[in-house]
Every structure is written in structure tokens, then in C-alpha cells.
Amino acid sequence: MQKILGCFQGWLAYSEEPMEDLAGEREVKMGELRTRDLNTVPLRQNKSKRKSHENFHFREKTGIKIVGKEGDIQECRECHRSLPLTAFTTKTPRSDGAYYLKKLCRECHTILNEEQREARKNAPPKPDDCANCHKNEKLQVDHVHGSTTFRGWLCRNCNTGLGALGDNLEGVLQAAVYLEKDKSKIIEILNGIKYE
Predict the structure, then answer these.
(1) Nearest by Cα to 118 from 143, 87, 154, 86
(2) Dist. CA 154–CA 152, nearest whole Å
(3) Which CATH class is domain 124-191?
(4) Cα-based distances in Å from 115 to 88, 143, 145
(5) Strands (DSSP E) along the chain, which ranges?
(6) 11-55 confidence digits (pLDDT tens)
(7) Residue 36: how many CA atoms within 13 Å on its side-chain side?
(8) What is the DSSP string of 62-114?
(9) Where are the domains of the chain?
(10) Are 25 and 36 in contact (CB under 8 A)?
(11) Are 80 and 104 in contact (CB under 8 A)?
(12) Same fold, 56-109 and 124-191
């Protein structure tokens, strides 16, 4: 700190400018030297402009700010019923504090949680590695949807990936055919996989 102060005092001693100009910041414009007074310059605003979200409402009983208009209808991803927004629970907030809603209705969400709980009860002890990719990561219960049948212990990536592919063999094979157009290579890979 002493070095910085010493440098500044040295600069002041050899400066030919009047003291009132030293409070400003130098800015070069079109070949001329100009001084700006920092007291008159407005503070720099955040460059990213926030959206003004107008599409929200408040839940009557809780007063929580929800994305969407009060009379809107949303389709449940699981049961495919079109339901009012009150049938869905909150998920994550957006920048203005309004909450997005889950894609599953409360009824389907409750059923899915009960299935997972029962599948976990039926599960054998947790192994060290994922049953699919054999990586040593945090494991989750994988179960057959619509039942409490335990299928295996999977890492989050494998469990999410299988779910996104439809949780069935057809979806996985469609993805394999998409990735590898030569079906003989797919058969070769399938023959090389170690089954337990």
C-alpha cells in the first residue's frame, strides 16, 4: 500500500495539471484529451437487461407467485390430462421470483413417489458401481414405471437417459440405430457386452 501511495505522490509532484482535474477520469475522444468528472457520470448499470415478466398470478391460499395466468391449463406429462395450474406443484423460481410448475400433476407425482418408496424397500443392498455403465458414482433406484418392481441401481445419468428414451428396449434400440447406421456394428457391440 505504501508503494502505491508513494507512486501516486510522485506522479502528483511531477504533474503539470491543476488539482481539480486529477479527480476526473481521462477519456480520449477523436484525438483530443478530455477529463470526465466522476461525480456527474451516472453509475454503470448492469449490462444484462432483465425481462419484465408479466405472465404470472398469485395462489389464493399461499400467496406464492406462479408463472402463467390463473385460468391457464397445463397437460400432465404422465397421465396426459389437461388440468388447471392448481393441480401442479411448484418447481423452481425464475428471476422475478415467480415459480415454474412441475410437469407432473400432484396425483401422478404422489403415485410415482409411492412406487419409488416401495421399490426401494424391495431393493437389494446398494452396490458400489452403476449396473449400466459400471462407474463408481452416486446411485439411484430404477424401477418399472406403473409398478413397484425394482430394476436395478443406476447412476443419475443412466437413470435419466433411460427415462428420456422411454424406459423401454425399443427406445434404446432406436437410439442405437440412429447413432450407428451399420446394424452389423450394433450386433458386434451387443455380442461384446458382458452380461451379469
Answers:
(1) 143
(2) 6
(3) alpha beta
(4) 19, 8, 8
(5) 25-29, 32-36, 56-58, 65-67, 73-75, 82-84, 88-93, 99-105, 139-143, 150-155
(6) 555 554 444 444 444 444 445 555 555 555 555 555 555 555 678
(7) 10
(8) T--EEES-TT-EEE-TTT--EEEGGGEEEEEE-TTSPEEEEEEEHHHHHHHHH
(9) 56-109, 124-191
(10) yes
(11) no
(12) no
- The number of beta carbons lying within 10 Å of the beta carbon of residue 48 is 7
Residue 29: what residue type?
K
Three-state SS at 26: strand
Residues comprising the chain, all counted? 196
Cell of 91: 418447481
- The residue whose grid cell reads 422475478 is 96
| Contact (Cβ atoms closer than 8 angstroms) between residue 101 and residue 89 | yes
Given a contact cutoff of 8 angstroms between Cβ atoms, the answer to whether 124 and 142 are in contact is: no
Instruction: Output the nine-digit C-alpha cell for 193.
Output: 457386452
In one-letter notation, the amino acid at residue 37 is D
pTM of the model: 0.55
CB atoms < 10 A from the CB of 120, how many?
A: 14
Q: In what order do the strands lie in the sheet with 88-93?
A: 56-58, 65-67, 99-105, 88-93
Question: Could you report the per-residue pLDDT of 62-107, keeping only the tens digit for each?
Answer: 888 888 888 889 999 889 999 998 899 989 888 888 899 999 999 9
Which architecture does CATH list for 56-109?
2-Layer Sandwich (3.30)
